[in-house]
Each structure stands twice: as C-alpha cells, then as structure tokens.
Amino acid sequence: MFSGPTSYVGTVDSVMFYIVGISVVLLLGITAVMIFFVIKYNRKKGHEPVDIYGSVVLETIWIIIPTILVLSMFYYGYIGFIELRTYPEDSMEINVTARMWDWTFNYENGTKTDTLYVPLNQPIKLLLKSLDVNHSFFIPAFRVKEDVIGGKINTIGFKAEEAGSYDIACAEYCGLKHSMMYTKVVVMPVNEFNIWYEKKGIKN
C-alpha cells in the first residue's frame, strides 16, 4: 500500500495510519454517542433518574476491546522495531561518528567521508557513536532514527531500494548549530558504488 526508498517506509506508514484510523473511529464514535445521550437524556420535568450500579456486559466490553486495540498497536510496532534491528550476515558495516555539529562516516577500507554513500539493495548496518553530547541520527525519507550517545555504540540498519540523495539530520537538540547538522545519504547503483569505493580505498 505504501512505498518509498526502503521497505521500512511501508511498515512505519502502515502502523501510523492504523493507529490514526483507530483514533478517528473512536473520536467519531464517542462524539456521536455523547450527542445522542445529550439529546435523548436532556433534563425534562417530572423525570426521575435511575442509577445504574453495574453491568458485567458493559464492563467486559470496555476492558476487552481497548486491550485488543492496544495489543494490536504494540504488535505492529514491534514488527517494525524488529525489522529495523535485524541485520543480515552480508550487511555492510559503517561507523558513524557524531560531534557538534557534523557527521563522519568510516568505512571498512579506511575511507572517511562527511556524506554517507551506500550501494543500492545492500543491507547496511550503522554503528553510531558520539564524541560529545547526545545526538539523533535521522533519515526522514527512510523513516529511520536512532539516538547517538557518548560512551555507547547504538546500531541501526536499512536497505535502500531507490537510488538518489536523501537528507540526514540530527533529531536531538545538541547546541547552538543543531539546525545546521545536516548531511546526505547517497544511494548508488552497485557498480558505481564499487568504483567509488575502490578509488577511495586506494587514496586512503
């Protein structure tokens, strides 16, 4: 139903629309019931109210239905969480270093760049660390985001399925020039990436 430069886009967008859809249905349903009761049970002369002390059926319904809805949201969210943190054996590992206020990408052949270059349809595993304050690695087009914390290595993965250039931002306020902490992830066809990667490796 939803498509994007990674399969994870469909996962995230589906979960979001699922939760929003449930929220809209509940909003409209509750509003309609409130209006119904306001009209039906508005105060009239001579009307004696009758207290309801309990209803097993009603209490069962408003426990079971919300529980099912919440568990279904958790289930779909958990599927997305696992997908983002499952790294195939052939994943390319890239070390990502954050500092105020830029990103550095270190490849296995010694290449260092300030732009993330990745091959098309290749699983990528990023190892994230910060040299100073907390940052957050965020690729909006991929729906990928992970905290980058000093003294700890966090991991995140993706597989880009559409060539192109996409923004990378810091999603955690990290000081005066936080808003300028932008770079790009460039997704290249495999043959073009291999040529670039070999040339960079030779220079290093």
Structure commentary:
- By secondary structure, the chain is of the alpha+beta class.
- It has two domains: 7-84, Helix Hairpins; 92-203, Sandwich (Immunoglobulin-like).
- It is built from three helices and ten strands, in the order H-H-E-E-E-E-E-E-E-E-E-E-H.
- The protein has helices spanning 7-40, 56-84, 190-203, and strands at residues 92-99, 102-106, 112-113, 116-119, 124-130, 135-139, 144-148, 154-158, 164-170, 182-188.
- It has a five-stranded mixed β-sheet with strand order 3-2-1-5-8, with no helix packed on it. The protein has a five-stranded mixed β-sheet with strand order 4-10-9-6-7, covered by helices on one side.
- Helix 1 (7-40) runs antiparallel to helix 2.
- The relative contact order is 0.16.
